[in-house]
Hints:
Order of helices and strands: EEEHEEEHHHEHEHEEH
Distance between the termini: 34 Å
Number of helices: 7
Shape: globular
Bound molecules: adenosine-5'-diphosphate
Low-confidence stretches: none
GO cellular component, one term: ATP-binding cassette (ABC) transporter complex, substrate-binding subunit-containing
Helix content: 25-40%
Keywords: ATP-binding, Cell membrane, Membrane, Nucleotide-binding, Translocase, Transport
Structural class: alpha/beta
Domain ABC transporter: 4-228
GO molecular function: ABC-type transporter activity; ATP binding; ATP hydrolysis activity
Protein name: Sn-glycerol-3-phosphate ABC transporter ATP-binding protein UgpC
Largest sheet: 6 strands, mixed
Number of strands: 10
Mean pLDDT: 90
Amino acid sequence: xxxxxxxxxxxxxxxxxxxVNDVSLDIADxxxxxxxxxxxxxKSTLLRMIVGLEDITSGDLxxxxxxxxxxxxxxxxxxxxxxxxxxxPHLTVFENIAFPLRLRKSEFSEEQIxxxxxxxxxxxxxxxxxxRKPANLSGGQRQRVAMGRAIVREAEAFLFDEPLSxxxxxxxxxxxxxISRMQRxxxxxxxxxxxxxxEAMTLGDRVAVLRRGVLQQVASPRALYEQP
Length: 228
Ligand code: ADP
Ligand code: ADP
């Protein structure tokens, strides 16, 4: 059973050309799928429909075998990492990472929250920064806090929307390695939007190419980028 199944997914804003046009794709459990394509081709829209921030005009979306078209984002068991991190500036690193757990208040004791946050922070080497505020962190550290917030949810899948595009080249390289290691260790299904060919080649099991809302090609990075 696929972790995420898209069946004839369409998104129509107003009465223009569909932003996402009849996209079908099976994403296997534990698979890392990269979504690439020119600006405006529908990458963000597709990601936002999967996570539930955008209504689906037509088609079926299944997560873990369950149809979720009408399921609220918080009940989809997905974790999204945005380009701009979307951290809460007034909260410490600890509280930023704990935030999704506190949303499900009755589920976790304070002790469990502490354990989960500290485990995620250790994975991301943020253990020494838990009491800091985002303003006092580097770009790479902020990025890791955003990922920590995704990790603690123990989500069915991670969704990344150009998570490294605001970082300089050196940090991007480090974070690429970090994400790759994390994914191998955790084996979590991942959909990752990027403009960066290096990220597409090094991180993905498969690369899906979107153009004007249409899925053009889905192939291994090798087949896609090393063909003559
Ligand atoms: P990408 O992420 O690949 O840059 P988007 O998914 O942001 O592309 O956009 C796909 C298309 O849908 C673009 O033509 C964009 O202008 C349009 N679009 C995106 N969001 C909206 C919206 N909220 N309302 C109307 N049109 C939108
Ligand atoms: P990106 O290139 O990262 O997708 P955009 O600048 O295209 O970013 O879009 C930023 C936000 O604006 C998104 O939330 C998108 O849904 C929205 N948006 C994009 N195009 C339009 C549009 N034509 N009308 C209304 N909202 C839009």
